[in-house]
Amino acid sequence: MTPFDISEPRSLRQAVALLDPEEPTVRVIAGGTALVNMMRSGVFHPTRLVSLRSVEPAFSQIALNDAGELRIGALTPLSALEYSEVVRQAAPVIRETMRTLSNIRVRNVATVGGNLAHADPHMDLPPVLIALGARVRVMGPANERDVAVEDLFAGYYETTLARNELIAELIVPAQKGRRAAYLKCTTRSADDWPALGVAAAVDAKGGAIREARLVVSAATPKATRMKTAEAILLEGVSDALLRRAADAAAAEAEVLSDNHGSAAYKRQLVRVYVERAVRSALGAAGANK
């Protein structure tokens, strides 16, 4: 690796002030699980890293507010989501997803904010958060703004964040009657990068789906909602409608070929896993009536 400077601010606001929107070689580092690999492989050559390890501990906490929102600091390690009783109560699908997200060594170091800011479409967390209707609070040099996780990703390894903006917090709204499931298909071990990830969240009652959010990732340039399929799910609950929704998602998804499989193979995976994910979410809904 080439030599670089490192800064260690005491607050997230100070960290933002050290970023230069015109200088792409200045980056923040939190867990560093992705960034360090990029540096070692020669993909990225920083001139300066801004370490977040000494900023306020509030950005590493998990809490539930009076409105039932799950508030997760951006510097919270992924493993904390796996073992948090608050997360289990508020959004159990997040906790379940963590169990096959890479391995425990990575989860102990990688942070929530870094995981989202990296914008790797193979990540397991983004489709789940989109299905849950989550948003992030973004801190910039002048102010803070909320961005829906759905709108955070611009493309393959691209976000809508400015170079001098940082994710400060993840906010998951109260789920109330909504139940969710996440399924992924890997070509190797269960904790490997997925060839396909599908998250489904439904608000179902009395044999009808009142709201549905369906998200496909890994096979696509970014985690993406399947809105045509979502609309079909609102027509009712039957084997035929589930198959129609799965077919619609397979047609709607912008699938890509890579070393995990061809586009044709992944399109068929979308068809199969969308139906499975919706059934799994419906099963969770039925269990929690």
Task: Let me know the largest β-sheet.
Answer: 5 strands, antiparallel
Strands, count? 14
From the alpha-carbon coordinates, what is the Rg to the nearest angstrom?
19 Å
**Helix fraction?**
25-40%
How many individual helices?
Answer: 12
- Tell me the strand percentage band: 25-35%
Shape: globular
Mean pLDDT: 94
Please state the structural category.
alpha+beta
Write up what this structure looks like:
- 35% of the residues lie in helices and 25% in strands.
- It contains twelve helices and 14 strands.
- With 289 residues, the chain is of the alpha+beta class.
- The mean pLDDT is 94.
- It has helices spanning 12-17, 35-40, 78-83, 85-90, 92-98, 104-109, 112-118, 125-131, 149-152, 227-233, 239-252, 263-287; strands spanning 5-7, 26-29, 48-51, 62-64, 70-73, 135-139, 144-148, 153-155, 158-159, 166-172, 178-186, 194-205, 208-217, 224-225.
- The strands form four sheets. It has a five-stranded antiparallel β-sheet with strand order 4-5-10-6-7.
Structure at a glance:
The chain has 12 helices and 14 strands. It has helices at residues 12-17, 35-40, 78-83, 85-90, 92-98, 104-109, 112-118, 125-131, 149-152, 227-233, 239-252, 263-287; strands at 5-7, 26-29, 48-51, 62-64, 70-73, 135-139, 144-148, 153-155, 158-159, 166-172, 178-186, 194-205, 208-217, 224-225. It has a 5-stranded antiparallel β-sheet. The protein has a 4-stranded antiparallel β-sheet with strand order 11-12-13-14, with helices on both faces.
